[in-house]
């Protein structure tokens, strides 16, 4: 039988694993799996190449369409049809992510509270500084992305 302290450590380890895994997945998706530039085949030269896949709001929502166009060798007609499908679902997806981000933020704060409960006062202060430094780095990265 597992004692209370061991359960706490296991819950904390599981929570940290979840947070790290989700963060790594997001980073992998945004920085490794997305392709910023795609050159379309010659039969679609009327549209030229798509070197910037950003939407009007600066997000990279076009990366799926760009990847499908390249990897599935979509015709111009297929590309335009998929573009319409993705645009039609963008509003629903945006609403979902707004809700999910809030839920994830609450979950993340719950994990951080559990972690703080295990730490000494000095470690807690250092942990808070680490979190603050990470948040500042994220904000700097977002600013650099917006300036591009």
How is the secondary structure organized here?
Layout: H1 4-33, H2 63-71, H3 76-118, H4 121-147
Helix pairs in contact: 1-3
What would your notes on this structure say?
74% of the residues lie in helices and 0% in strands. By secondary structure, the protein is mainly α. The radius of gyration is 21 Å and the shape is elongated. The chain has one domain.
Quick overview of this protein structure:
By secondary structure, the chain is an all-alpha fold. The protein is built from 4 helices and no strands.
Give keywords.
148 residues; mainly alpha; 4 helices
If you compute it from the alpha carbons, what radius of gyration comes out, rounded to the nearest whole angstrom? 21 Å
- Mind describing the biggest β-sheet? none
Q: How many helical elements? A: 4
> SSE order, as H and E?
HHHH
Distance between the termini: 55 Å
Query: Total number of β-strand segments?
Result: 0
Structural class call reads mainly alpha
Helix content: over 70%
Uncertain ranges:
35-61
Question: How many domains?
Answer: 1
Strand content: under 5%
Principal-axes shape call: elongated
Rounded mean pLDDT is: 76
């Amino acid at each position: 039988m597992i004692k209370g302290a061991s359960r706490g450590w296991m819950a904390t380890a599981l929570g940290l694993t979840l947070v790290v895994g989700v963060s790594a997945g997001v980073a992998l998706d945004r920085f490794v799996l997305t392709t910023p530039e795609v050159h379309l085949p010659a039969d679609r030269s009327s549209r030229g190449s798509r070197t910037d896949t950003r939407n009007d709001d600066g997000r990279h929502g076009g990366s799926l369409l760009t990847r499908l166009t390249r990897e599935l060798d979509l015709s111009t007609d297929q590309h335009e049809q998929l573009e319409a499908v993705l645009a039609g679902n963008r509003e629903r997806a945006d609403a979902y992510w707004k809700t999910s981000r809030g839920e994830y933020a609450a979950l993340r704060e719950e994990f951080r509270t559990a972690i703080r409960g295990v730490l000494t006062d000095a470690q807690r202060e250092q942990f808070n500084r680490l979190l603050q430094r990470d948040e500042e780095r994220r904000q700097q990265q977002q600013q650099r992305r917006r300036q591009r």
